[in-house]
Design a protein that fits this description.
- The chain is of the alpha/beta class.
- It has a single domain, classed as TIM Barrel, CATH 3.20.20.
- The longest helix is centred in the N-terminal third of the chain and has 17 residues.
- The chain binds fe (ii) ion.
- The site of fe (ii) ion has 5 residues, from loops.
- Keywords: Hydrolase, Protein phosphatase.
- It catalyses: O-phospho-L-tyrosyl-[protein] + H2O = L-tyrosyl-[protein] + phosphate.
Length: 279
């Protein structure tokens, strides 16, 4: 089923804060017994049912992955394929209408591009787009260098949870040069709805209002960490802040374009002005 199926349900006469029922979640840890995500297949199915109830129709399975996995990591592309197939079979057996797309949450470090090109890390599905995270203390220059390296090799980079990096918390405007070079920013839904505190919510709202957020995704890990799908709640906050059209782009149209390697026409980011020295 196309991720855009059912899109026609949205139209005139709908309230501005309608719940969107065909959302795409590009960041999850739903694959079981893999990283700090779902601890069992049954937990993965709990997450899958919660995603569907939340209005999500497609999830990317993006376990943490490194080209050279550390000793405590089970990561391998072979294991992604294996767990992915098990989950897909279980979804079909349980008649849970959720489409899976394989991917990796790639750890930004030297050698990541070579590992991707060698097939040890995954882009989203068959696309040229990838999810890239950084250590929280990464310097802006180092993040830029890694992103541009992927872009020069013709990959489209989605930056995972920019709101968490220290250089962004010190000055969100540091994202502007990255965005101007085509990096896409994935805000975490829980941050926008206030589950990570009021400061984080204020910063993520400002990022959204200034064109520094391109997609919303859950980064859901499962019931054991109480990080469950909450994209509908974030979509509602985004509707209030920036209107239904932009909010729908964050949870559906832009993620769909990313999976399809389609062109994006995004508004340019705007500088956030400081208010009495506070963000
Ligand atoms: Fe993640």
């Amino acid at each position: 089923m196309s991720p855009l199926a059912g899109e026609g349900a949205e139209g005139e006469g709908q309230p501005a804060h309608h719940q969107h029922e065909t959302m795409i979640d590009l960041h999850t840890h739903i694959l079981h017994e893999f990283d700090d995500g779902a601890e069992s297949l049954s937990d993965a199915l709990v997450m899958a049912r919660a995603a569907v109830a939340n209005g999500i129709t497609t999830v990317a399975t993006t376990p943490h992955g490194r080209g050279v996995p550390p000793p405590n990591s089970r990561y391998s592309v072979a294991l992604i394929r294996e767990r992915f197939a098990v989950l897909q079979t279980a979804l079909e057996a349980e008649a849970i209408p959720l489409t899976l797309v394989a991917g990796t949450e790639i750890y930004g470090e030297a050698g990541a591009l070579a590992a991707l090109q060698a097939g040890r890390l995954l882009t989203y599905g068959t696309s040229r787009a990838l999810l890239l995270e950084f250590p929280l203390e990464v310097r802006a220059e180092a993040a830029a260098e890694l992103i541009f390296g992927f872009q020069l090799a013709n990959y489209r980079v989605v930056v995972a949870h920019p709101e968490r990096y220290r250089f962004v918390r010190q000055d969100p405007n540091a994202l502007i040069p990255l965005i101007e070079r085509g990096a896409l920013m994935q805000l975490t839904s829980g941050a926008l709805i206030g589950r990570q505190g009021s400061h984080m919510q204020r910063v993520t709202k400002q990022m959204l209002q200034h064109g520094m957020a391109h997609i919303l995704a859950t980064d859901s890990h499962g019931p054991h960490l109480r990080r469950m799908p909450d994209l509908a709640e974030a979509h509602a906050v985004a509707c209030e802040l920036v209107g239904a059209e932009v909010a729908d782009a964050l949870v559906l149209h832009t993620p769909a374009a990313i999976l399809a390697d389609a062109a994006l026409d995004l508004p340019p980011p705007e500088h956030i002005r400081r208010w009495f020295g506070l963000w």
